[in-house]
Write a structure and sequence with these properties.
The chain has 99 residues and is mainly alpha-helical. The chain has one helix spanning 13-98. Residues 57-86 have a biased composition (Basic and acidic residues).
Length: 99
């Protein structure tokens, strides 16, 4: 931020210091406001980053859950297919022995 003031003529050192202090005092509100806005932007950005991180972690957890469910479903289907195959083999064996 830049503070601009204007003086005409050749002021004494005490007048110059007084004028500079007045300019600084008048712009203090603007400086405070600029700092506050910067802090608010920083806080908002930090919050967005935290929310994005939480979303990504949740998404990864959901994807992992889906992957495990799919693996469990495939394992169940494979087990059911093996059991059905064994049952069919036993039925065929029983039908050949009873004939």
């Amino acid at each position: 931020m830049t503070i601009v003031g204007r003086m005409e003529g050749t002021p004494s050192s005490s007048d110059l210091i007084s004028r500079l202090q007045t300019i600084i005092d008048h712009n203090e509100i603007n400086l405070i406001q600029a700092r506050q806005e910067r802090a608010e932007r920083s806080a908002a950005q930090s919050l967005r980053q935290q929310q994005d991180q939480a979303y990504e972690e949740s998404l990864r957890a959901d994807q992992e859950k889906d992957r495990r469910r799919e693996e469990e479903r495939k394992a169940r289907e494979e087990q059911e297919a093996r059991e059905k195959e064994q049952l069919n083999a036993q039925e065929m064996e029983n039908s050949t022995h009873s004939s």
